[in-house]
Amino acid sequence: MPRDIPAPTIVNPLRQLSLEQLRRRTSMKWRTYPEDVLPLWVAEMDVPLAEPVAQAVRDAVALGDTGYPYGTAYAEALADFAGKRWGWDGLAVERTAIVPDVMLGIVEMLKLVSGPGDPVVVNSPVYPPFYQFVGNMDRQVVEAPLGADGRIDLGVLEDVFGRVGTGAARPAYLLCSPHNPTGTVHSAEELAHVAALAERYGVRVVADEIHAPLVAAGASFVPYLSVPGGGNGLALLSATKAWNLAGLKAAVAVAGPDAADDLARLPEEVGHGPSHVGVLAHTAALRDGGAWLDALCAGLDDNRRLLADLLAESLPAVRYEPAEATFLAWLDCRALELGDDPAAVFLERGRVALNSGIPFGTGGAGFVRLNLATSPELITEAVRRMAAALGPTALDRR
Ligand SMILES: Cc1ncc(COP(=O)(O)O)c(C=O)c1O
């Protein structure tokens, strides 16, 4: 391209689709509740597909290229993305494997480093499927709750590691980085401390980094495998959250240098699980979807500010700290005195669907999770409905 032609700017993907268009969608977010409910719950985004992704899918369909996945293009695109975005050049393609999706990848990694009945530590409140998937694979979930500031409480983590790290069991730690639901971006120092504790107590770390591309302006994501001592960790990454590809399943498992032998034991058939079209879509997203991602992240920055303003204005008793990552807002509704499950009240009386905090484990009661990956208009309408759910006295509860 000649130098004086600027690259086309990409408009905010969060402002592209009307409510009418979104209601034609058939996915979980849009079909679980009746039509009069505004859904801002499950982690789907109200965006059109990024053009490079749409093109990759169209090309595959046009060619009938819908067979089984093959090769390392996805891992190569991820390694390149990690170098450019996070300044990390340690993602070695030969220490990666494609897996069906992040949650099934987590299950496979936990099978590699722990055994039946072994403890898996999580930082509650945390993404509810952590409890379900880990429980269903015959491991025991052990909570190390986050601190009141939403950050990993390293003292609590050490206590829990000390408890689970004794005996013959092979304990593991399922790190959510960035953290869902709080959106916390763990710092390099915190992660290095985690790695030191894991080493001291013989705990293996599996890091879920699915939200890593979705950082706010000014924040920097740090890959767990890049920190000192993180070399025997395993991480799961994908383009699913940042490009809204949950319907195009595929993820990458990455081993640090000292976990390469573990990943080498991954059964070959696990790599048959991801969708080939999914792999193509994720690869295109990571390789060519950078400008779209930047436009999305800028839109999310705006939405966080908007939500903070709207809540301050019409629901000042709700505590909200705009997060450094993810498109999720974790709202402390305890001062509203709606009990443990304010989401049920917002749904019933306000006709707005948010996630209840309860399934997120200890620390979730009285909270709701709101999905910010929608238009400013729908966020405004959601807050209007939340306030309406509380009736005219809501504004007085300061
Ligand atoms: C932390 C976290 N991990 C995993 C997932 C699901 O990923 P996948 O669909 O690839 O299993 C989500 C989805 O919201 C998530 O927030």
Question: In one word, what is the shape?
Answer: globular
Class based on secondary structure composition and strand pairing: alpha/beta
Strand order of the largest sheet: 2-8-7-6-5-3-4
How many strands in all? Answer: 12
Helix content: 25-40%
Number of helices: 14
* Fraction in beta strands: 5-15%
Work out the oligomeric state of the chains in this entry: single chain
Number of domains: 2
CATH topology of the largest domain: Aspartate Aminotransferase, domain 2
In this structure, how is the largest beta sheet organized? Answer: 7 strands, mixed
CATH classification, class level of the largest domain: Alpha Beta
End-to-end Cα distance, whole Å, is: 56 Å
Q: Which ligands accompany this protein?
A: pyridoxal-5'-phosphate
